[in-house]
Amino acid sequence: MIGQPTPPSRADVEARFTAILDGSQSRDEVDRWATQVMQSLEYAEVDETIWWALGMLSGIDLRHGPGEPYLHDDEQVRGWLAEFRVRCTVIS
To answer: How many domains are contained in the chain?
Structure first.
């Protein structure tokens, strides 16, 4: 029997936000990771805060159009990271 997939930790999710902002991972890499994780956890019980963050990270590489700026700029990503940190302390 195959076990239920394990959701990422809050620290791992936070690291993905940080990786986008410091350039250690591309937006495309983080988007693919978040999308894959969400698909694998479709029927799993997942922490609401982690699920919210995965939703933010999935699609993080979207642009206004070909060669255009990202739909969500670094300032918005910083805002999501700040909100994630607040959610981690408020919702346990």
So the answer is: 1
